[in-house]
Amino acid sequence: MTWKNALLFFVALAVSGCGCPGSQSYLIEAEEMDDLGSFETERGDCSGNALIRAAGTNIFAKGVYEIPEEGDYTFFLRDVSFGDNQRTLDCLVDRKKIGSGGDAPGAVRPALEWCKLGSSHLTRGAHEIMLQSTGANVRADALLLVKGKVPPLPDDSMPEKYQRLCTRNGVRHSGEVKFNCMTERAPFGAYHCKEAIVFSIHPTLDDKPIREGQLFYTLAGDDGKKSEGIVKLTGNPVKVTTTLDTPGFVRLTFTLHDADGKLFLGAGKFDSCAGADEEKISQIAEPEDFDAFWAKQKARLAAVPLKPEFKEIAGRDPENFRSFEVTIPAPGNAPVTGFLVVPRDAKAKTLPANVAFQGYGVHMPSCAFPQKGCIFFEINAHGMPLAQTRESIKELAHKLNRYALDDTADPENAYFCGMALRVLRALEFVRTLPEWNGKDLMVSGGSQGGLQSLWAAGLDDKVSFCQPYIPWCCNLGSETLGFMPKTWGVTYTEGARYFDAANFAKRIKCPVEITRAGLGDFICPPSGVARMYHNLKCPKKITWFVNNAHSNPPSPRPTFATQSDDFKVPAAFEKKH
Q1: In what order do the strands lie in the sheet with 96-102?
Q2: Tens-digit pLDDT string for the chain (577 aa)
Q3: How far apart are CA 285 and CA 560, in angstroms?
Q4: How many CB atoms are located within 10 Å of the residue 185 CB?
Q5: Cα(566)–Cα(439) distance, rounded to whole angstroms?
Q6: Which of 107, 236, 241, 482 is at a distance of 20 to 30 A from 137, taking alpha carbons?
Q7: How many CB atoms lie within 10 A of CB 106?
């Protein structure tokens, strides 16, 4: 049974009664709330169902809704849960919390499913309903309000029969709204300072031009200029023109409204950038002792013997792969911990290796996914023990709150220094494995994992291929030079320069492929990623995604790629490309 049929059955039960006299239910689509704040809209599954995602904590989405009938309402949230992690959402009605969705002990919902939040007595009339993230990377699709006796969860499909609630400031529409927006000169970064940058915007409803309504847009540039405007729709492409006075990017955001100025609910927001002279973007000078600092850290690492401990476990495919929990001593704040997966029939000195790194946050460790024909070692970002409870994860998450770069006044004692040494130790360990072929060593990861991949390739010349995506902490401190919002989660100090991916990029010799960079990503701002990319003097490639924030982009999504003439994915990793 599809989720849509399940939803329709659930709602039909409530509306028709089905043994529950007086029941009534109302559906609120999360992406149709009239203020999504910093939530991102994305597509949740192959059906094209839209949902919202919070990249960080304390992010709000809200709307004011007219409740038709007074009564006691039970709230359900359609969301994803991975069990004991800390990806959670609070639901608040008139600023009072009624319950939480997302992760909970034993509540594993890897696909979007309904969970019960709690109940609230609602009077007839307007009520504010809000979702607040209390953990990073939490997703939600819809809220269901059931009045009266609560029906059982659905088992079979039923005909569609429910009531949709709209915010007071929005207008419903039937059909799919798309924003086709490109610059008149492709790619988005092919402009020079002072040149006219022309965005061509063509909104459609069910693939037909929208002939009535308005676009509300804003422009903000790395040169400090800001503007906004309203353009009436006629069915023809809307042109928005701007310039950049200094090298960097200009950010265009817009929303679709009807002729009366009401927001088109469910249409989402376009958020993307275009660049000018991006290879000339400014950067704060790196520390004069950068190489000496890291030589000293490598000496610290060499002083700790490489004595890994293995524990074989069943893993995800025990018939074809051997899986191990691994702990390796390292200097700094923790050992290396991670999951190693090796093909069961592997012979000595035959396999390439991929060492993978994790994104930001404190997550419940889980066994790595096997990779055919490859040694795969995924390490925990914090070197935490691999056997954890929800309570211990919660305690560690509290202890490591804002662990990134608040402590870089003394970079040797910074949290990131220990993390970087664990990265190097993981590479040393993999090179000791008898199955490794002695030459092909790949590093990979996204966001914080992308940062660690660039550390690895910049510090260890035995890395043969680096494949980060949406890399974090590029061109740190650029906000002090006037660039748009600083890198998310980072407090800049001079010591932060020792961990800036843009400085490591200068030292990388192996091929680097940045498989995704978002032109609407202001966790990892485009100006920083571009500066890091242009610092690479090795074979390189980057793929920019239009209208893409930090989350996985809906498909299809316009992209453009640039690469050096000598870039090629190493043969050992082509099949994993």
Answers
A1: 60-67, 125-133, 88-93, 96-102
A2: 333 333 322 222 222 233 233 457 888 988 888 888 888 877 644 334 678 888 777 889 999 999 999 999 999 998 877 666 677 899 999 999 999 988 776 676 667 788 889 999 999 999 999 999 887 778 888 899 988 777 655 332 332 446 888 888 888 887 888 888 989 876 677 899 999 999 999 999 999 999 999 999 999 999 999 999 999 999 999 999 999 999 999 999 999 999 999 988 878 888 899 999 999 999 999 999 999 999 999 999 999 999 999 999 988 888 999 999 999 999 987 999 999 999 999 999 999 999 999 998 887 677 778 888 999 999 999 999 888 776 777 778 777 877 887 777 789 999 999 999 999 999 999 999 999 999 999 999 999 999 999 999 999 999 999 999 999 999 999 999 999 888 887 888 899 999 999 999 999 999 999 999 999 999 999 999 999 999 999 999 999 999 888 877 766 678 889 999 999 999 999 865 4
A3: 30
A4: 14
A5: 20
A6: 482
A7: 8
308 burial (CB, 10 Å; 0-12 / 13-18 / 19+) is middle
CA trace torsion 459, 463, 469, 471 (10° rounding): 0
Q: Are 464 and 439 in contact (CB under 8 A)?
A: yes
- Bridge-based pairing of strands 375-379 and 351-357 is parallel
SS3 75: strand
Look-up: residue for tokens 């074989």?
312
Closest residue by Cα to residue 426 from 298, 325, 337: 337
Asked if residue 556 has a cis previous peptide bond (ω within 30° of 0), the answer is yes
Query: Strand ranges (DSSP E) for 185-344?
Result: 197-205, 208-209, 214-221, 226-232, 238-242, 248-257, 263-264, 270-276, 309-313, 321-328, 336-343
Which residues have a Cβ under 8 Å from the Cβ of 427 and sit 6 or more positions away?
355, 441, 443, 456, 460, 462, 463
Cβ density class 414-447: b for 16+ within 10 Å, e for less: bbbbbbbbbbbbbbbbbeebebbeeebbbbbbbb
CB 27 within 8 A of CB 144: yes
